[in-house]
Amino acid sequence: MLLDYHLHTPRCGHATGEMEAYLLQAQRAGLDEIGFSDHDPPYFLPEAARYPGIGMTETELPEYVAEVMQLAQRHPELPVRLGLEADYVAGQEERLAALLAPYPWDYVIGSVHFVNGWDLTDERFLERYAATSALSLSESYFFDVQGLARSGLFQIAGHFDVVDKFFCGHTQLAREVAIAALEELRKAGMAIEINSSGLRYPKASPFPARWLVQEAITRHIPFVLGSDAHAPHRVGAQLHRIAAWLQSLGVTSVLRFHNREASPVPLG
After folding, report:
1. Which helix (H) or strand (E) covers residue 128, if one does?
2. Are 239 and 205 in contact (CB under 8 A)?
3. What is the pTM of this model?
């Protein structure tokens, strides 16, 4: 089976296209199941500190949930799962738990975007890299991923080495801390997303990189597939290639989710 569990919607402020168009592209791409996991409201920031494109608002969250569920009802021929890509910010776990609690998620992707108060995945903040120690940034990032795993709030770890999105080599600098983060994911029973969007950036490889995937395999950490599509034409992008690559490494299955419960399905 080929699943894409990382699809966004215009509600996040930096994606385009109607949800129906994402589903239709998934059908054209030969996918067996999809999941929407748009960005959560930035619950950890006061209103005055929020800026355009950072995520949906709190009032949009129930609308998003309803729209995903309605889409699933209209298209029983293609399973549509309800997910969310939620930011992990240390010290804000209770606020996130309260945000998630009212809704029937099939899965929640935990991602670290903000480190030391700025979004390292947003090209609007590229100058911050030059002003920050690469080692310090990388270690801080993977310490937060460890906290993400320990929080118990997530089923999937999103784009595990996204700290390498614009400038490669950060993860290698913090290799021991990154491996410790993998250990925390293993202990938490979480899956790791193989995110094909990394192929579009200077690193030119999926998130996470091959050596991290191999480390995950040795620890029997399961995988989930995602394109991180922010436009309909990106749905399923490179996932056939990713599946073949994983199979070459000996991976035979990925996880699907329903009501936050995982089950393995054959890969490919």
Report:
1. helix 127-130
2. no
3. 0.97
Tokens of 73: 């009802």
**DSSP H or E segment with residue 224:** strand 223-226
**3-state DSSP helix/strand/coil percent for the chain, to nearest 5?**
40, 20, 40
Reading the block at residue 105, the tokens are 């998620």
Are the C-beta atoms of residues 215 and 245 closer than 8 Å to each other? no
The structural domains of the chain, ordered by start, are: 3-266 (3.20.20.140)
Q: How far apart are the first and last CA of the chain?
A: 5
19-55 pLDDT, tens digit per residue, is 999 999 999 999 999 999 999 999 999 999 999 999 9
pLDDT for position 203: 78
Q: Which helix (H) or strand (E) holds 36?
A: strand 33-39
The answer to whether 193 and 202 are in contact (CB under 8 A) is: no
Pairwise CA distance, residues 242 & 237, whole Å: 9
Strands 191-195 and 3-7: unpaired
Which run of H or E residues covers position 192? strand 191-195
